[in-house]
Structure formats: structure tokens, C-alpha cells
Design brief:
By secondary structure, the chain is an all-alpha fold. It contains 14 helices and no strands. α2 packs parallel to α4.
């Protein structure tokens, strides 16, 4: 079975990445680093910028964070937030400059370092990204998000075995992110390690019961690649019963393309 898995990655991974970036990284900014104390004259304005950012008001957030920096140019978290605003608005070069300034002020800020590594990977500089992420992990070996981004960079560089290990490190460190499980599961499927993929999805549902429908859908993808049509149909049916909108993906997700002419799959995809 050589079907691609692009369909699901487009539908789920982008949304999950954006949510993770805005919530997980920003929570780390909010908890702060050495320069982010209430003693800073710019800290109150920085907090307002955070609120605007979390509300998706990036233009307002940028205006406020610039004011915070004007009040205290050494407020490292303000520069980190500015970088994240630029990431969310697609201004990657400016984001790198802001992250670099934050690290100039706080060279040991593993949170900003991780954000910078993730951005470098997105920009196609995987080897450089790995160096940055490894430095972050030297500073904070238990930082699950850095392991996640390292795994992603390794996968993009074709270093699949190392990527599997890094994803497992992220999960073992209790990363609170569904995408770590889905990415690892799909990587294992791609490597034809189906039983391991099933185990990853089982573990995902145990940790995040609210995504049981997604877990079943992912298992169905695994069964499709494995060539087990009966199990695939059962898992898809159970997934759709929990989340009817998943029916819409069946005939567009390329991982099922070898079955698109199958009567039973067509019936499942078109029935209400």
C-alpha cells in the first residue's frame, strides 16, 4: 500500500500547530524569564500585548509590545512575543531578528531558543534548527516542546529513526499536545511499523479522551496502509459515529485512495 498521508496532515496538523504555537509557547513567555518582572516599566504594556495576542489581535499586540520595548528595551519576553507575533503574521525574517534580540538579552532562554529553532525548520534550515534545538535541550533536557520540534526537523531531513526517538522523548515528558502523538503515529505508519502506530494512538486517547474520534480515524489510516479493509471500515464507522464530520475526509484523504472505488467505503462516505 503506497497511499499518501497528505490529506490528514493538511486538515489536522496546521490547526494543531497554530494552537500549540499560540498557547504552549505563549504560556512559557507569560511565566517569564529573568527580565520579565513586574519591576520593568514596560511589563504592564507587555501583559496587554499578550492579551491582544491571545485574542488574535496581532496588529494591536504588535503596537503594544513595541511600546513595552520603548519603555524597557531589555525586556526579553517582549522581544520574544514580538517574534511570535511576526511568526503568526508570516514575517519570518523579522521574527528571527526579534528572537535573536531576545536571546542577546537572555542567552539561556530555552523557550525563545525553541521558538527560533522551530522557525528555522519552517524556513528550510533544518540542520541549523537542530543545532539551536539541541542547545535548548542542553539547557532544559525535560523541555518536551523542544523535543517535539527536534523530531519534526529530523523527519524533514529524512532521519526517521532519530525522529521516532525524539517524538517518544516529547511524549514521555508529558507533552500536552495531540500533534506529538499523531505525528509519531503517521511516521510509524510511513515506516510500516503498524503495531507501534496503533499503540501510539491508544496512548493518545488515554491521555486525551476527548479526541477518541481522531484516534479511531488515525487507526483507520493505519489499517488502510496495512491493507486490512475490514478493520479500517470498522474504525472509520466508529470514528464517524463520534464525530460525523470525519465522513467528509474519507474521499479526500489520500491515505484511503486505494479504496475509493470500494463499494463499502463509498457507502460509508456518502450515507448519513
Amino acid at each position: 500500500m503506497k497511499a499518501s498521508k497528505k490529506g490528514l496532515s493538511v486538515k489536522f496538523y496546521l490547526v494543531l500547530f497554530i494552537v500549540m504555537s499560540m498557547v504552549v509557547i505563549m504560556n512559557s513567555y507569560i511565566t517569564g524569564c529573568k527580565k520579565s518582572t513586574s519591576d520593568s516599566p514596560g511589563f504592564e504594556m507587555y501583559e496587554k500585548a499578550v492579551s491582544a495576542f491571545e485574542a488574535g489581535k496581532y496588529e494591536d499586540a504588535l503596537t503594544m509590545v513595541n511600546k513595552a520595548i520603548e519603555m524597557d528595551e531589555d525586556l526579553a519576553v517582549a522581544w520574544g512575543l514580538k517574534g511570535e507575533i511576526y511568526v503568526q503574521t508570516g514575517q519570518k525574517d523579522k521574527a528571527l531578528d526579534a528572537f535573536d534580540k531576545a536571546l542577546e538579552i537572555e542567552p539561556r532562554d530555552f523557550v525563545v531558543m525553541t521558538a527560533r529553532g522551530a522557525l528555522l525548520d519552517d524556513m528550510g534550515s533544518g540542520e541549523e534548527a537542530l543545532k539551536v534545538l539541541d542547545r535548548a535541550l542542553i539547557l532544559k533536557p525535560e523541555y518536551a516542546l523542544a523535543w517535539f520540534y527536534k523530531a519534526r526537523a529530523l523527519k524533514r531531513l529524512g532521519r526517521d529513526e532519530e525522529a521516532v526517538d525524539a517524538y517518544r522523548e516529547a511524549i514521555d515528558k508529558n507533552i500536552d499536545m495531540v500533534e506529538a502523538y499523531t505525528n509519531l503515529g503517521y511516521l510509524l505508519i510511513d515506516m510500516e511499523r503498524y503495531d507501534e502506530a496503533y499503540e501510539v494512538y491508544d496512548r493518545m486517547v488515554l491521555r486525551f479522551p476527548e479526541v477518541k474520534a481522531l484516534g479511531l480515524y488515525c487507526k483507520a489510516c493505519c489499517s488502510a496502509k496495512k491493507g486490512d479493509k475490514k478493520l479500517m471500515l470498522k474504525q472509520l464507522s466508529e470514528s464517524i459515529e463520534l464525530e460525523p464530520s470525519y465522513r467528509d475526509y474519507i474521499m479526500t484523504d489520500n491515505i484511503f485512495c486505494d479504496y475509493w472505488e470500494d463499494r463499502e467505503l463509498i457507502e460509508l462516505a456518502t450515507s448519513d
